[in-house]
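hey so i finally got around to running the thing on that chain from the lab meeting. sorry it took forever, my laptop kept dying and i had to restart like 3 times. anyway pasting the input first so we r on the same page abt which one it is
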Amino acid sequence: MEAQKTITTTWAIDPTHSEVQFKVKHLVISTVTGSFSQYEGHVESMGDDFDGAKISFSADIDSISTGNEQRDGHLKSAEFFDAEKFPKLTFVSTSMMKTGDETYSLAGDFTLHGVTKPLTLKAEYGGQMQDFYGQTKAGFEITGTIKRKEFGLTWDGVTEAGGVVVSDDVKLVMNIQVTKQA
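ok and heres what got predicted. didnt touch it at all, straight out
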């Protein structure tokens, strides 16, 4: 009997139709949203099935934006991300397992500020469709939370009243569209 041939499909992030954001509590009373405008990623799947897919992703720290130039400069500085010394954050999957009809558990190694830790994310599959140019696209909403201090992002400010300026928990929210590569 002949061995069945496995077809690997490569997908690339479409940055025009994707967004990579984070949300962090400020003064524990409101949320500040930031994003990265420069990033790339690839997915290798078995055909069009994403169960067991392999994912690699990176974002340029210098592309961080929170809508406030002064805050962005502080985040890029050595007190936070130290973009000069650690120019990228990365995620390399170790597993992607289907957990429901449209959901996956995405586990991998997340590297930020020179520290690598295991991270599990939830991926909600939006489906596949062909665009106007005949390209096959697939969409995911990926969410999770990291503790910034575990990655050496230890800057803390305390108000006169004793309140914490920046929460340790950082929510990750990524809406990703990938394009099947020829």
